[in-house]
Design goal:
The structure is a homodimer.
Chain A: H1 3-6, E1 21-25, E2 28-38, H2 50-67, E3 71-81, H3 89-102, E4 107-115, E5 120-129, E6 144-148, H4 153-162, H5 169-176, H6 182-190, E7 195-198, H7 203-214, E8 217-221, H8 234-239, E9 246-250, H9 255-264, E10 268-275, E11 279-284, E12 287-292
Parallel strand pairs in A: 3-4, 8-11
Antiparallel strand pairs in A: 1-2, 2-5, 3-5, 6-9, 6-10, 7-9, 8-10, 11-12
Helix pairs in contact in A: 2-3, 2-6, 4-5
Chain lengths: 299, 299
């Protein structure tokens, strides 16, 4: 939706095409990402504690830095909150955001608290790039597609809450405390991977983003998608967002997933390959079960 | 309100004490400022057009860069908007923000549009510092206090809207299109001024911020406050926020205001002096009419 705007302000804008903006400052290059989280749209108050809402908002913004292999420096946290809430509510949100930042060696640089009926969080994450960023647009025909971690936990937690049940605890934890894959992204960059994107919208939607940016087709193998123990089905895991894992395009081979697993106690799983064409195709046992046209945005 | 939080997250935070965060990147130093604007708190839809709401939000964030004499690089714009609005509404908000950025030679670096019942805007402004920032804490006993421009326009516009009237057009323009004093701030820095703050909360409240940060007292002369033609009274002009002018502490003298006026076609007016003590005193004809204790925050 944002992309459609750039044409209107083309002479006053310099968007990168990734979720981060890149700013050159002297010799250094910064990656900056902003994320708005709004009560009712991105979270509901009954589901999570305030410090979890703060963690999630910060993690979402920091995950955008992971997607380009930037090293976080700090976050700016804006909180809109009703004055009718208990007086330490904003502090609890801020503590959660600060904890998510500390988990990736970043600090809270500044903040703003304003009055709002709905709870609103804005987190801007600032990171440094040691070299050129890994972008979405670098995928090449013949690359394999890999994902970090196991998918479907957040979707299972959401499904439980929406059905009025309390989620299974490990699925709830995946939703409440996503871990931006900062160290993993730097490691992958050092392996020379061609393209990355973080799974904020889900594997299916973010594969479409990577395909569009790289002008290729992503062919995904449904049976290969690594599932969280609480995941309901590969289809739900494919469609569910809020994962904050990474989708990576890199040369085919077994050495990288093995070394990754040894380094991080986290799987790196081959889920498909990059082909000529456009859009996303999902295959089960060789048959195409799902096609996303490049002209119709998923989601 | 934000300040009270820092103690809770002291080991994970690095706030600057100004409205900007400062980040060193290699040889360069960045100033970064975030501002949340929320419908009902910071603006009402009936008062302003969408592009004016975008301009104001961007100008508020860019004004924080002016306060530390940083040069803007770009802005990140997050918009929360209802999907029931006309489809080009977000574009209109974004165009206003882009225009405010372009007016100070900055661009829109990136953005995020999400679903929200209330209109929410978040603008993060990124600037570069050519030297040490001018901060709030540098005011010295014996300094004169100066303000840029003429005060009371935004307060007059707000008073008219709240009384159900359309504001006088020049007062409305001051509210709808505030101009961050970027060029003026750089000029003032080059003159060696000791401290600055932008008047986002109003002269009275921001003089208190400057006094607290510098551990001094600001003595303001009510009769000296330069008034916008539509201003209702010096008292209203003193208390009204949303000015985005600068309050400056600098050595006493007539040369600087004269040179400033010649350079910018804008007055720089002496409104008081920095004294030993704490807090703010407002004097009319030598008598103290208003005292703000350092222990009671104005506003």
């Amino acid at each position: 939706m944002v992309r459609a705007l750039w044409g209107r302000i083309a002479d006053r804008a310099a968007p990168s095409g990734d979720d981060c903006a890149f700013v050159d400052v002297g010799e250094a290059r910064l990656a900056i990402s902003g994320d708005l989280s709004i009560e009712g749209t991105h979270f509901r108050l009954g589901w999570l504690a305030l410090h979890e809402i703060g963690w999630r908002a910060a993690a979402a913004s920091l995950s955008d830095l992971a997607a380009v292999a930037a090293t976080p420096v700090g976050i700016m946290v804006g909180i809109g909150i009703s004055p009718e809430w208990p007086s330490d509510s904003a502090a609890e949100v801020m503590e959660g955001a600060a904890a998510a930042a500390a988990a990736v060696d970043a600090v809270v640089l500044g903040g703003d608290i304003v009055r709002s009926e709905n709870l609103v969080l804005d987190v801007t994450a600032i990171g440094r790039l040691a070299s050129d960023p890994v972008e979405r647009r670098g995928a090449r025909v013949g690359d394999a597609l890999y994902v970090t971690g196991r998918l479907g936990g957040p979707a299972a937690a959401l499904a439980a809450w929406e059905a009025g049940r309390e989620p299974e605890s490990s699925a709830r934890e995946r939703f409440a405390h996503p871990e931006p894959r900062i160290a993993q992204a730097t490691w992958l960059r050092d392996q020379g991977v061609h393209a990355m994107v973080d799974l904020s919208d889900g594997l299916l939607a973010d594969a479409q983003h990577l395909a569009a940016a790289s002008s290729v087709r992503c062919a995904l193998d449904l049976a290969a998608v690594p599932l969280h123990p609480a995941a309901e089905s590969p289809e739900r895991a494919l469609a569910g967002g809020e994962e904050y894992e990474l989708l990576v395009a890199a040369p085919e081979g077994e050495a990288m997933p093995e070394a990754f697993g040894a380094a991080f106690d986290l799987p790196l799983t081959r889920v498909g390959r990059v082909e000529e064409g456009l859009g996303v195709e999902v295959r089960r046992d060789g048959a195409i079960t799902h096609v996303i046209s490049p002209f119709r945005q998923f989601g």
